[in-house]
Structures are given as C-alpha cells and as structure tokens.
Write a structure and sequence with these properties.
The structure holds 2 protein chains of 2 kinds.
Chain A (H helix, E strand, L loop, with lengths): L2 E3 L3 E5 L4 E8 L3 E9 L6 E6 L3 E5 L2 E6 L4 E6 L8 E9 L6 E4 L3 E6 L1
Parallel strand pairs in A: 2-11
Antiparallel strand pairs in A: 1-3, 3-8, 4-5, 4-9, 6-7, 7-8, 9-10, 9-11
Chain B lengths: L4 E3 L2 E4 L5 E6 L6 E7 L6 E7 L2 E5 L6 E5 L5 E5 L8 E8 L7 E2 L3 E5 L1
Parallel strand pairs in B: 2-11
Antiparallel strand pairs in B: 1-3, 3-8, 4-5, 4-9, 5-6, 7-8, 9-10, 9-11
Classes of the chains: A mainly beta, B mainly beta.
Chain lengths: 112, 112
C-alpha cells in the first residue's frame, strides 16, 4: 500500500523560511500535492509536482525528487496566517482510478 | 469558496441509524472523492468516482456506500452508525484525475 511520512509539528517565527518534508512509498506514483488546512476548515490546494524539480507559487514552493521518493514544501516570509496543518498527498494510479492519499499532516505554528 | 457544495454542514444522529451526505462538485469537474477526517487525524481516502463510475477505493467500510449520479453530484451513505463514525466527511472534486482537487466545507457527523 501507500505510506507517507511528514513531521507532525514545526514551529517558526514570523518572516522566517520553513521547509516541510514528505517521504512516500507507493507504486503507480503519478505526482505529489500539497494542501493547507486551517482548524475546522477545508483543505485547500497549494501545489502539485508530477516531475522532478521546483515549482514556485508566490511565497510557497514545492520540490519533488521521484528517484528519492521525497518532496518538500517551502514557505517563505512566514506570516501568522500561515499557522495551519500542511498535508502532502500522493496521486497514485495503481489498480486504476486516481487515489489521492494524504499524509498525516504537519502542524505549523508561526510565532512572533 | 471552492465551488464544491456539501450538505448538510452538521448532522447529529443516533447509533444504528443511516444518513446520506451529499456533494455537488465544481461545475465541469468529473471526479469526486470522499474523505473521512476524525479528530486530530489525517484525511482518510474512502472512494473516488469519475463521470459516474467508481474508479478507486480506499479503506471504506462495508457499512458505507457511495454513488455518483448522471448530473455528477455524489452521495455517501453511512449505515448502522457507530460512535466511531463521528468525524468530518469531506468531498472533493477535480476536472480529471489529477492531483489538484477542490474540497467542500465538509459535513460534521456526530453519532450519539
């Protein structure tokens, strides 16, 4: 089956840069997504990597290395509103269909 | 607003009962996914539909079933409810079967 590992909690100060790592084990891998979820809210899409390399979207960047089964989300110029849970998710097409399997999430706390 | 609509927002029911959760995907999206999120837990993939056809299944209990209708809305049926079924149930949709999915606000189910 699939498994994803990411740190359970990360703390950083406002204005800093933080990296949230994600390692995965799966077959039929198609890509790695990142989602943000505030307490009590719905997950919102941040980025998707299907190919190796870095994707940049404003203050957020995401990186993928397929050979290492590893990716990360980089958040720059942290703001208080970035305090949330961040999930990596693997897009897996083993057996047909499109399983989007989520990791257990990393809770990011941004402090003054 | 993601464009994905879930009803109801809250549901309180007794053990042994059956409920139906409804999801209307974003206009034009053909894929619908259902997830369960228990307190302080990650998102557990339940099932995916694409254009009316079941495409992928996760750890969905036999007491749970789903379908996607010709107008692309989807329903998740939960029966013989147990206390442990209390959770947030999210529906998400995507255009195809890619890694970018849009989530509804969820249905909070409480089984008493």
């Amino acid at each position: 089956g699939q498994s994803l590992e990411q740190p359970s909690e990360v703390t950083a100060v406002e204005g800093a840069i933080v990296q949230i790592n994600c390692t995965y084990q799966t077959s039929g891998f198609y890509g790695l997504s990142w989602y943000q979820q505030h307490d009590g809210g719905a997950p919102t899409f941040l980025s998707y990597n299907a190919l190796d390399g870095l994707e940049e979207t404003g203050r957020f960047s995401s990186f993928l290395s397929r050979s290492d089964s590893y990716g990360y989300l980089l958040l720059q110029e942290l703001q208080m509103k970035d305090s949330a849970s961040y999930f990596c998710a693997v897009r897996d097409k083993k057996g047909g269909g499109n399983k989007l399997t989520f990791g257990t999430g990393t809770q990011l706390k941004v402090e003054l | 607003d993601s464009g994905v609509t879930q009803t109801p927002k809250h549901l309180i029911t007794a053990t042994g009962q059956r409920v139906t959760l409804r999801c209307s995907p974003r206009s034009g999206d053909l894929s619908v996914y259902w997830y369960q999120q228990s307190l302080d837990q990650g998102l557990q993939f339940l099932i995916q539909y694409y254009n009316g056809e079941e495409r992928a299944k996760g750890n969905i209990l036999e007491r749970f079933s789903a379908q996607q209708f010709p107008d692309l809305h989807s329903e998740l049926n939960l029966s013989s409810l147990e206390l442990g079924d209390s959770a947030l149930y999210f529906c998400a949709s995507s255009v195809g079967e890619g890694g970018k999915a849009f989530f509804g606000q969820g249905t909070r189910l409480t089984v008493v």
